[in-house]
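Input/output pair, single chain:
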Amino acid sequence: MAGKHNRSRPSSVEQNMASLKFNPFRPGSLVSPGMFAGRHKELEVLERVLFQTKNGNPLHFLIRGERGIGKSSLLLVFKYIAQGEMLSLQNNKYNFLVVNIELEPNSTYREIIKRVGAEFQREISNHARAKELAKKVWDFLKKWEIMGVKYAGETRDLEPHELLDDLASTIDVTLKATKSVLDGVVITIDEADKPPSTANLGEFCKLLTERLMKKGCDKVVLGVSGLPQTVDRLKESHESAPRVFEDIYLHPLTAEDRVDVVRKGLNEAKSVNGFETKITPEAESLISEFSEGYPNFIQQFAYCAFDFDQDNVIDEEDVRSGAFMKHGAFYQLGVKYFQGQYFDQIGSDEYRKVLRAMAEHLDGWVTKSQIRQAVDLKATTLNNAILALKDRNIIVAKPGKKGEYRLPNRSFAVWIKAYTSNGH
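Output:
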């Protein structure tokens, strides 16, 4: 393959013009439906969720996966399908009211209930036909304004169980009033792993779904999204909460889908810029290899490669330069995802050697003897490194098995392997 140095370099004027071209890739942001790729099995499950709920048999769901795997982007596509702004995989059009909230580390049980109520009221207000039909029950809805902090005519702060009862009643009476224009209601809760166990998210999910069913309100579906440990977070406040949900675990994209993401981006760039930016098969493969199928990683590597390119043909040199240059893709991913784990909490490169050795096994279990064989460290240094990394939750010890460890997630291993492949 001919490298960049074998092609004529653009002039300074051409470089300035090239710097103004629209870059379609969106690292760190939700991926628009037009650039969404893969996830056919997951979308099939989510269509079943909508179909079942529309017909009075709600199928609640839990989307889990590592950081950068595309959970929020999948929820966005699901929202467009549920609202009827996109056709489903089977070309069905739905008309659900979608209520979405994102949780924070300081979210409380009371705030979760209030935020769902407030968003429900806001979405009804924004839906012209539903709002018109809901006039008779508007007093129920108005109570949730400004996050439900002030109730009309109420001088006391309601207890959580009172708020929950009121939320279920509000959803019930509103759906009955708007049944001629809505297929039902979708409530999605993103970043569900963030709040502490005291937020009682599992209890909220379990009790709300039960209260709705007792009222005969059977066209409301609850979807929760978060990191893999979200299941444990739900259990902490209600042991049976995870049983409410259909579990959807997101794995990395296939090699074919990774390339599809890049090509869709370049097609969008062509429509905006008015000219085509091409990419070599080798460059596509390298982006695929670096990303290991994590959608946010694909976006980052593709963005930097597109940004570095100056002749509208992205090749391997563009991908590598965009990845490893100062403030390039690896730097950006490190800052966004792994700054604390790989840099801030580790002052010794000897400790990083341990992480690099473990990364060769991705997120699989590694014995201490395997690490010892892979790194050139004194026994005491290795012991200190493992102890420090374990205490800082940078590596995980295998329960009930002494001397076996793994990295906390596959994406961390992928980043370490790729970041250190160029001598870092």
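The chain has three domains: 4-19+254-325, 39-249, 347-420. Residues 1-18, 147-155 have pLDDT under 50 and may be disordered.
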